[in-house]
Amino acid sequence: MPALESIEDGAGFGDAAAGDRDDGEEVREGERAEKSAMLGQLCEVNGWHRDHARKALRQAAACPDPAALQRRQRSPVLRYQPEVIEALVKMWAVLDIPMRTWADWDNNVPGFLEVDLVGHDGGDLNGQFCFTLTATDIATGWTENRTVRNKAAKWVFAALVELQGQFPFPVLGIDSDNGSEFINHHLLQWCQDNQITFTRSRPNNSNDGAHVEQKNWAVARRTAGY
To answer: I need a labelling partner for 90 at 20 to 30 A (CA). Which of 46, 65, 112, 178 fits?
Structure first.
């Protein structure tokens, strides 16, 4: 009775179990290959990374209603006050403009200007009052002035563009303080378009603009007063 002997020895059950395991493994391998192929096709169609595709499939399985899923995933709307936005814009502009000290430029080459504004408020800072824009060439001391209705960046920019054509040599560089009337992307872009170096002085270091500060007193204050 060979069949009975095989059963008693356990050999028949062992072979059957091994066969079942092999068949089960083949099925699982086939399922994995099929899932991998489907995942690859999903990534190819949507331009997704495989990790993102897996996450999307898990979310879809957990929430079969796409509209509900979209509502749940919607990001919160962030709102900033105007003063915060203004400060961020200025900060970005400052980071784009290099800082200069009084010793960083070649004082023997005409064309590098220090610029500054002088306010004529008459001792009363309330309301609007005019300013004088002073531009002084470091090498020659040549100075040009223009009056602006206030310190808004658009008036200062227009005056600088006009002043550029009044110097008897090409303007190669402009250095200002850190006021927003100078530190803005509009002026920076104009300088870059015209191949003009634009730098800023160190905060609270008036010596960095010593040339234009001297002309503020000698020209603007003596002519227009306070």
So the answer is: 112
